[in-house]
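Section 5: illustrative case.
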């Protein structure tokens, strides 16, 4: 495979999938918006089956949640990301017949995503009702240089006729119809109603607004200077339009740019429409498709420079890895006001919500390879602290904050609290991510300005939510009742191991940073009202944290009662009854030991020093046997642990399932959007798993071991302002310092000194 091919995602080389799956796979995005790669003639035509649309990060409407029994404190509104009209949409007119009125035949011929330039190339063969055939070629990209821009070039060439073809670019509809209504609660139901006005009645610059959340954004449609198309009023809508004289074999091209601007509500500013229109015009003046593309590609080049993982020995796998990394890059909000949704910006699944997925599964990739992006993602949480504080009080928690389980605007949006709000571990997950970011980057400014506050205020939550036990079983230990851990097939338990261990970590890092800042920045503690007494109290709770353990089986217990329940008969359950959540009442599931996803073993993964390998093996064996992986967040964790246990075949198998999840649609719902956390897990598996990267005090350790099928693995990361490159082969590991000052690091826990002039090359045995 040549170097360039390694970044091409060619339709013909992918396993066959339905239309919606490919729309998701080929979505283009830049963290600000995502555009599904749908049939550009579909629009709102119910004749077609696709699910076109554009998603803007943070742009949602509220839909009232209706409960038969509406208890105090229930989330009252769901935030739903808006499925905006498809900017790719185009209308053709042949022999007086418009394609939006009478469906034309549209056949997808080919698609290719060049992950180096970010350009998606597509070919469709189109036939009019009068049997005139022409080929439509699209080249499009979401700009990574100017995050507001979506750029698309259309080329048309006649296949069996000579004559006039009229092109109309207008958006006759604003509410994108969604063709299927799924019973799957993980899919989003179309429920938002959008309004539109044109900023100046005769230009295709529209303001789209939501009704309940009262948000507005502007989408400006402009042509680029490589073609001239007039704006005219067609059916009372400002439209670009032109009639081309087609001759066979001669393609005609024209390009458009969409400038999408959204003043995020957390900014607390209002949009000046005229200022936006002026700035959109200025931004685009005299720019060609090529110029805009070059600017965007330069940004993507930087991304690959920092973040590529180069695997040799399996070309298809190498490409699959890049596909996952590229999607992560396309998904990540980069403005401090937005995060990464469970589906990125590729589909409406999970209503566009942010979960713990962002901090625990995706953030490490950015923390190590694009720390500036990681900082922005953490800032999003910082900016929603007021909502988290309000929620804590609403839930009767006197101190600290309570981050929502699922959200866009910072408020809780989960309607089923046992598998939602009760997952209070999200507080500790966010704190864990802040700590990792600070330890990897050494960004003390961030710690001082934002991170410390997040850590202290989340830690305070545990002091209020947990308590010192008095009963015999837990006497004098700090316990946390009525929570749900990551495994959503077990709910509302006492002392979920994962939650307690993460809370303990949250408390300990609050103590660590308080003690550190007490000397360097005492004013910070004063500002947050952190006293010596409070530090002592946090410390006492961390030390006294109860961690359930089954002494008979010698395993970490998922919660106080977990091992006493009967085990779900996994092997006797027909394949078509999975995922269980779509077939059984939650209480039926809760009645058994059955895990949707990695739960207790997440702590083995996150705190490797907590246990020796015998303990890890017992935990792994026990929990693997009762885990059904109905969540996409599961397999990779088991894979990493299998690797640590030197179960090479299992580790490899889990890894392959992780990398190929969306390309093979193995969860069956990629059509609703990619599994972004699983994409982050691809990186975790490679770097925390096969390369064995782990943090040490102000340093890092590598314990590499490659699967037999691979020849080498190369990747880069940043550590305290230094860029480091690691190359692992079957025989040796090479560590290079690309930029920055010398440092000491560990290889299989043995210390090495790394300088720019002296790389470290060590044989592996
Ligand atoms: C998982 C959660 C996850 C959510 C969004 C659920 O199926 O159980 O852990 O956060 O999906 O990806």
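Designed sequence:
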């Amino acid at each position: 495979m040549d170097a360039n091919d390694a970044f091409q995602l060619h339709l013909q080389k992918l396993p066959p999938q339905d239309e919606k799956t490919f729309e998701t796979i080929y979505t283009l995005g830049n963290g600000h918006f995502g555009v599904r790669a749908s049939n550009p003639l579909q629009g709102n035509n119910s004749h077609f089956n696709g699910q076109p649309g554009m998603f803007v990060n943070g742009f949602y409407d509220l839909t009232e949640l209706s409960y038969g029994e509406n208890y105090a404190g229930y989330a009252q509104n769901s935030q739903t990301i808006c499925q905006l009209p498809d900017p790719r949409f185009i209308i053709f007119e042949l022999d007086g017949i418009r394609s939006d009125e009478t469906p034309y035949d549209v056949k997808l011929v080919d698609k290719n995503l060049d992950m180096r330039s970010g350009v998606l190339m597509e070919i469709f063969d189109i036939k009019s009702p009068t049997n005139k055939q022409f080929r439509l070629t699209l080249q499009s990209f979401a700009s990574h240089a100017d995050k507001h821009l979506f750029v698309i070039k259309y080329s048309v060439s006649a296949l069996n006729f000579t004559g006039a073809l009229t092109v109309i670019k207008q958006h006759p509809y604003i509410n994108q119809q969604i063709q299927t209504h799924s019973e799957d609660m993980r899919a989003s139901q179309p429920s938002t109603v959008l309004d539109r006005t044109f900023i100046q009645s005769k230009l295709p610059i529209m303001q789209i607004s939501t009704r309940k959340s009262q948000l507005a954004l502007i989408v400006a449609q402009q042509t680029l200077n490589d073609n001239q198309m007039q704006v005219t009023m067609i059916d009372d809508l400002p439209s670009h339009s032109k009639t081309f004289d087609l001759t066979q074999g001669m393609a005609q091209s024209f390009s458009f740019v969409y400038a999408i601007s959204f003043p995020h509500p957390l900014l607390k500013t209002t949009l000046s429409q005229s200022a936006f229109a002026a700035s959109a015009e200025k931004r685009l003046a005299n720019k060609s498709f090529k110029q805009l593309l070059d600017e965007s590609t330069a940004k993507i080049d930087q991304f690959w420079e920092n973040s590529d993982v180069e695997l040799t020995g399996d070309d298809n796998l190498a490409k699959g890895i890049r596909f996952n990394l590229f999607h992560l890059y396309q998904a990540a909000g980069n403005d401090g006001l937005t995060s990464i949704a469970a589906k990125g910006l590729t589909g409406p699944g999970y209503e566009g919500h942010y979960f713990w997925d962002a901090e625990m599964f995706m953030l490490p990739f950015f923390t190590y390879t694009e720390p500036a992006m990681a900082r922005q993602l953490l800032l999003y949480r910082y900016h929603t602290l007021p909502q988290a504080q309000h929620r804590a009080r609403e839930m009767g928690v006197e101190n600290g904050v309570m981050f929502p389980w699922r959200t866009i605007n910072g408020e809780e949006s989960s309607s089923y609290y046992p598998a939602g709000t009760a997952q209070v571990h999200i507080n500790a997950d966010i704190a864990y991510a802040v700590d990792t970011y600070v330890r990897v980057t050494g960004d003390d400014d961030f710690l001082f300005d934002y991170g410390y506050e997040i850590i202290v205020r989340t830690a305070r939550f545990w002091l209020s939510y947990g308590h010192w036990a008095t009963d015999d079983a837990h006497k004098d230990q700090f316990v946390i009742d009525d929570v749900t851990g990551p495994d959503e097939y077990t709910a509302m338990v006492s002392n979920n191991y994962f939650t307690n261990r993460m809370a303990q970590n949250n408390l300990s890092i609050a103590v660590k940073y308080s003690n550190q800042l007490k000397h360097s920045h005492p004013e910070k503690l004063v500002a947050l009202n952190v006293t010596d007494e409070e530090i002592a109290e946090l410390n006492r709770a961390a030390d006294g944290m109860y961690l359930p353990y089954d002494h008979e089986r010698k395993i970490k217990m998922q919660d106080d009662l977990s091992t006493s329940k009967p085990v779900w008969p996994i092997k006797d359950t027909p394949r078509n009854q999975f995922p269980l959540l779509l077939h059984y009442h939650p209480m039926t599931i809760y009645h058994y030991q059955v895990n949707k996803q990695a739960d207790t073993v997440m702590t083995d993964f996150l705190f490797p020093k907590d246990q020796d390998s015998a303990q890890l093996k017992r935990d792994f064996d026990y929990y693997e046997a009762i885990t059904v992986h109905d969540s996409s967040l599961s397999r990779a964790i088991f894979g990493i642990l299998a690797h640590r246990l030197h179960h090479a075949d299992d580790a490899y198998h889990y890894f392959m399932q992780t990398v190929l999840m969306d390309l093979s649609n193995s969860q069956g719902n990629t059509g609703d959007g990619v599994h972004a956390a699983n994409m982050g897990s691809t990186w975790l598996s490679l770097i925390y798993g096969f390369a064995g990267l782990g943090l040490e005090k102000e340093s890092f350790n590598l314990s590499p071991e490659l699967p037999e099928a691979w020849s080498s693995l190369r990747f880069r990361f940043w550590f305290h302002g230094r860029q480091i490159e690691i190359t692992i082969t079957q025989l040796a590991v090479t560590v290079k310092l690309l930029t920055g000052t010398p440092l000491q690091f560990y290889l299989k826990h043995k210390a090495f000194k790394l300088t720019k002039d002296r790389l470290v090359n060590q044989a592996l045995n």
